Amino acid sequence: MSKELARTAGLSPSHFAALFRMAAGCGVVEYAKRLRMARARELLVTTSRDISEIARTIGYNDAFYFSRTFRREHGCSPSEYRRGKN
Measured between alpha carbons, how far is 83 from 77 in angstroms, rounded to an integer? Predict the structure, then answer.
């Protein structure tokens, strides 16, 4: 992912990664994961979509992997988060 972004920005991958980390406080992959999780939280609270549909919407093809990642990041499952047990 960062190679494509670096190419688009006209920078070497290492220089792009350093600049990105300085600006965002984390790497590209971590930043993308944070954005995905923020969108997942929003969808969990504002919609009644299935967890698997939310996972697909934010780019996770495997709902179980999404749920494990969500739990690791937030300390609760997506279903618990939706019920307000966050």
Answer: 10
